[in-house]
Amino acid sequence: MKVRSKESVRHSVNGYVMVLVGLGMLIGGIALQVWMAARGSATVFSVLSLLLLMVLGVLTLAGLYSLQPNQAAALQLFGSYCGTDRHAGLRWANPFFTKRKISLRARNLALDVIKVNDKRGNPVEIGAAIVWRVSDTAQALFDIDDYERYVHTQSETVLRHLASLYGYDDADDTHLDEPTLRGGGAVIAGVLRKELAAGLAEAGLVVDDAKLTHLAYATEIAGAMLRRQQAEAVLAARRKIVAGAVSMVEMALHSLSEKQLVELDDERKAAMVSNLLVVLCAEKDVTPVVNSGTLYG
């Protein structure tokens, strides 16, 4: 079983204080050298003291490093992880520590538009924008070889998988309760964030936001799908026109019957309904025809 890294807090020392300490050692070493030169006597002890002060001063200054807000430093001693310092400003730690700085700021990843097949097998073009940041520095640095490339690869994989779970739109009336890529909106974005968060958690990364930025049919079927959408729009308009016409005919028959303006048998009612539907549903203006005879021969 793989043992995962876990971030631990490492408290560092105020760097400004250590600057004074390091400079004090160097100045003390220089003063000791001047004093020995003035006296013209140098003992083994004084020479060793001079070297010790100079070496300690250099090592002290070598342990200084600075961190910006929302930046951390992972400290390692000869390859062993010793903790993470998240304190901003001028800091000091063991000069033998290796300090690997890592940004904790939110980052935006705009995925290139990729071509995938949706749930119904239609080729679509889809793109997304991901907002992510580092949460656990130890996992990001030591469990993943390149966490930035890992984010890009995982995001593209999740986006491809998401497109295969849903259809581009409602191609028929059999799955009206199922969200689609085009109409799903918040549902699709929520699924995208959830799957990304699960995939990136292993690298100590969190997802703050994820949304689709591009969605369209692939070029090879865009024309056919546009004609289908136009046909669906025409059918929807026709349904409304027919529904309205039927309602008007029903109202007319009911009004004639209620006011007893004219007595109509079934045949005359059928003729009236036919004529009214032609007038109301026709795309062009209808030319009236005056019947001077009777419906019966």
UniProtKB/TrEMBL annotation:
<feature type="transmembrane region" description="Helical">
    <location>
        <begin position="12"/>
        <end position="38"/>
    </location>
</feature>
<feature type="domain" description="Band 7">
    <location>
        <begin position="62"/>
        <end position="233"/>
    </location>
</feature>
<dbReference type="Pfam" id="PF01145">
    <property type="entry name" value="Band_7"/>
</dbReference>
<protein>
    <submittedName>
        <fullName>SPFH domain-containing protein</fullName>
    </submittedName>
</protein>
<keyword id="KW-0472">Membrane</keyword>
<feature type="transmembrane region" description="Helical">
    <location>
        <begin position="44"/>
        <end position="67"/>
    </location>
</feature>
<dbReference type="InterPro" id="IPR001107">
    <property type="entry name" value="Band_7"/>
</dbReference>
<dbReference type="InterPro" id="IPR036013">
    <property type="entry name" value="Band_7/SPFH_dom_sf"/>
</dbReference>
<keyword id="KW-0812">Transmembrane</keyword>
<keyword id="KW-1133">Transmembrane helix</keyword>
